[in-house]
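Example (one chain per record):
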Amino acid sequence: MIFSPKTSLDDYIIGKQIGEGAYAIVRVGLHKPSNRKVALKIYKKSKLLEPNRRRSVKREIKLMDKMQNF
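Predicted structure:
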């Protein structure tokens, strides 16, 4: 589930950290309206100051958006 203008962080219960990468950490989440478990990727703003990293993250977000339609 990609974060959209209709979605708020208030719609989620944020749980424990389950992973970490170069740009972000990943936490377990629960989407309250649907009662679905999700992975929430929380980006470190300081890591996105470099244009190349920012482009990489944008590509990743587009890919995740396409994958949700499968």
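Caption: The chain has one domain: 9-67.
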